[in-house]
Amino acid sequence: MNVRLLAFLLFLPCAALAQGFAGLGTDAEGFKVPQRGYQFQFPADHGAHPTFRIEWWYVTANLMGDDGAEYGIQWTLFRSALKPLDSDGWQSPQLWMGHAAVTTSDSHRFAERIARGGIGQAGVTANPFAAWIDEWRMDGPDMDSLTLSARGADFGYDLKLNAQGPLVFHGDGGYSVKSADGQASYYYSQPAYAVTGTLQLPDGDVQVTGKAWMDREWSSQPLSEDQTGWDWFSLRFDSGDRLMAFRLRGARGDYTSATWIEPDGKARAIDDGALVAEPLETARTAGRNIPVRWRLGLPDEDLDIEISALNPNAWMGTSFSYWEGPVRVTGSHSGIGYLEMTGYE
Amino acid sequence: MIGPAIQALASHWRLHKIQLGTLLIGIALATALWSAVQAINAEARASYARASAQLAAGQNDELHMPGGFIPVDLYVTLRRAGWQVAAVLEGPYRTEDRTLRVMGVDVLAYPALPAFSEARDGATQPDLAELLTAPGRLFVRPELSAFLAGRPDLPPVIESDAVPPDLILTDIGVAEKMLGKPGQISRLVVLPVQPMGLPSLDALAPELERVAPSEAMDTAQLTDSFHLNLMAFGLLSFAVGLFIVHGTVGLAMAQRRGMFRTLRALGLPLNLLVRLVLLELTLIALLGGAMGLVLGYFLAGALLPDVAATLRGLYGAPVEGQLVLRPAWIASGLAMAAGGTLLASSQTLWHLSRMPLLAAPGLQAWRGRPGSARLTALCGFGLIAAGAATPLLGEGLFAGFAMLSGILVGAALLLPASLAFLLARFERRASGPVAQWVWADMRAQLPGLSLALMALLLALATNIGVGTMVASFRLTFIGWLDQRLTSELYVTARDDQQGAEIADWLRPRSESVLPIRRTELWHETGPLFLYGIIDDRTYRQNWPLIDAAPDVWVRVAAGNAVLVNEQLARRGSLWTGDRLTIAPDWTLEIAGVYSDYGNPTGQALVSMQQFDTHFPEAPNRRFGIRVVPEKATELAQALREQFDMPPQAVIHQAAIKAQSLAVFEKTFVVTSALNILTLGVSGFAILTSLLTLWTQRLPQIAPVWALGLTRTRLARLELLRSVLLAALTAIFALPLGLILAWVLLSIINVEAFGWRLPMHLFPLDWLRLLGLTLLAAAAAAALPAMRLRRLPPSDLLRVFANER
Description:
The complex is a heterodimer. Chain A has helices spanning 3-11, 15-19; strands spanning 54-65, 70-81, 94-103, 108-116, 122-125, 129-133, 136-142, 145-151, 156-163, 168-169, 175-177, 184-201, 204-219, 227-237, 242-250, 255-261, 267-270, 276-285, 288-298, 303-309, 315-316, 322-331, 335-341. Chain A is mostly beta strands. Chain A is globular. Chain B is of the alpha+beta class. Among the domains of chain B are: 1-58 and 221-366, no CATH class; 59-215, no CATH class; 489-626, no CATH class. Helices cover 62% and strands 13% of the residues of chain B. In chain B, a hairpin with a 4-residue loop joins strand 3 and strand 4 (99-105). In chain B, helix 9 packs antiparallel against helix 15 (433-484), helix 14 packs antiparallel against helix 15 and helix 15 (433-484) runs antiparallel to helix 23 (669-706). The two termini of chain B are 28 Å apart. The chains are: A mainly beta, B alpha+beta. Chains A and B meet through helix 2 and strand 4 of A and helix 3, helix 5 and helix 7 of B. Chain A: Residues 54-220 form the AttH domain. Chain A: Keywords: Signal.
């Protein structure tokens, strides 16, 4: 989600520092901006793009434990460039932030890491693929076969990810528009990883299997001035279809976008205005009212579903805080997925 | 009954306004000095605490590399193994006339610092991009900001009150450039939250040493001794002030005996009377205490800048020069005043509570009995013996101060008996009735004056002791400066390259060029500065060694041995023949120990060749230049022109010496100020005692007057008596002061600073002090003597008519 880009800029350690960045959503200050018609180059584009302001490698997974319980995990690496260049040493403008979480129906554990790229504490290389911050890693010979690990004070995980389908490009061939003003990002996903591995929890290890979804996105000017937050869905239906959908909330009205992904990976972009996203119920978490039950509709796809959080308290109390957790889907289609919500104060 | 009783008690003070004033001044002086010292200490400690909070220091374990720095790669290795640590790079940053400390933290990992988040009113908010990328930003206090402003080689400065004084706080990326330490980390702070399943540090980085926050030598520990010193001074002044209170309260009670008797005869219960007197004293104490607090506040405000300068200069301790009024300080000051007054009056109150209803209001009944004098002397002996024995029981500052107080108080208690003994001797030898009378009269006066004389003894002894200590220190320090600062010129180049060019240019133009290179290491005793020196006769001839093996310089030059400073030797018990581990793989035998009064930290010297092998990246920008003194100025000028250097980059030896001495003098400004104040208070104590005695002098003087001595002659004798007693006390004070000086130099200094100083004697100072004492005694006696001279004969005659 592009909007996370702005989030990263706001993430930085002290709130006061962040204020200087509040206006960054609107101008690119020498950074490159996404162009329609861009031809992706792989594996190079799996790596970092330092001349763009913001970028992330975002993995979420819905897992089932050998104890019969449902689990959600998150592994995210954000890159934020203070200036459009890369250099060695402490003063490199490339900053990195990692977020990791394990969610169950009654617990939500998370951790955060912040590092500088210039000294090798965090970074991404494309070939062979490796993304890391501190001891958290996502790496493998290529994007189709990855190992994923992270640790927090009270959780950890080691997972193997194997792609079961092709990459999916959102919007116009990976050029994903984010507002009526034309702000956009490069955005593609690998929505079909099969996952096996181990979760380390305070009560002991749990063997898990399940499905994961990876988002790759980078940009330099992600948001319109009036946009204050977003709701983002990645859903896997029992039919084998998948849906990526988001709603950017703005003073001048919402901006929506979605991608319908068929079981074989064929993707269909759904433009602004088609998605109906309606909060049905809020829960009080971290002192805010967060919508934890939603109605989602896409009339053209005969989609009318209800989405409910596995754990309403999946609040990421990180430097920049937001809600992110696994969801269940019922209605015209049933399934599971992940939901992210920001900007609820 | 209570109302009239209060009126009666109060009437005394209305009639004796000077007495009331004396009492108030006594309490105020005692409180003022004590609370001034308390305020200074509290301010300093608050500054340390504030600095700790501002730097988020002293809360977490730290990782150090014994004998070196931590490379950035090792930090990344630790991080990529999961260890949550924050990098800090620290070091001194020299400008032409100040040495500042740079602390560079990894802004992204280090615990949140107020300086980064709290911008000053009106100042621009620090921008993370500006902070983290070149050139970066420096955070300093406003006063330092003015000092650093406009230096082209420094990043822009952001003012913040949340930075300790004399510190430049910045990102580690800026610090490594300012300090010339690329890729180096001084220490790693172990953050409180660590991930699960962390690999052990021993496996990852066995060379690192983990230090708990309490073990790291912090400012508070380092300066404890200094504050203890101040506190001892404060207590001494308080005690001297209480002597005044004791004397005045005793007099007031004596004068009111008749009133008490009358009140009781009128039916006022003894209990109530005692309680009323207690109330009265408490009120006076609180009033005097309040005056003292005001005085103390201003005194502390006047002294604090110097104390702050001392603490910064000596320990690098971050003390701000501004005083804040603290409620706890007011409360404790008033409590000390009330407690002290009641303590000083306790004997008097005790007598009052036991006074028979119709006791004669004689003054002699107030005095101590011979038995008690003997007991006092015995106590004195006991205390001296106990004090002298303390070093056998334990070491350390407290033992030193216990020893001092034992000897001082013991000697004070012995004073009356000793004086009485001497006076009896003089009396026996005296020829002529007047002389005999003078000696006998002095002896009779002793009990009344003894407390004031004790106070004088303490003040004089302290003066001599502290004076000797400071003067010895000064003499040693100047000698040491001459030894250490032998080069005629000191040059600081812009960078290493210019340094090399300058050295090449200077070689044919000077006798020798001595590079000054150093690096900051970590030793188990705390920070350790390692210097590299070349083999030069300058060192052989001048270096102030206090302990050395034969052919020490040959061995150091050959790279087989190391020299350590006295601080390191004492702290680590590392003397000639022991081995010093400089780096994990580098241990050398200690060939000698040198004295070092410039700083409290440990230092070591090795040959330049060895230094360069281990620390090739250490800056090589500073040089000492040996040249014929007459040519120094000419060479300095040529050097500045040749390399286009600012004036402060080439400094004459004399200028450095003057600077060092100025720092030294500042260090002891407070000590001397307290010294003089104590002496002043004790002079005042004599005055009050003499005034007290005055009322009872008439019955003693009247018969002598009646026998034919004129009032003028009697007045002169009064003066003489006072001066004589003071002189005798001063003579007693001399050995006591010298003992004090010895303890200060050999015990307290070693504990407080880590060096032991040779003691020098300054007889001229003693003579001046004696003169001052006699003058003070004469001045104190002048008022009563004057009164005597002007006393109407009828008053003297009246003595024979009735008792008063």
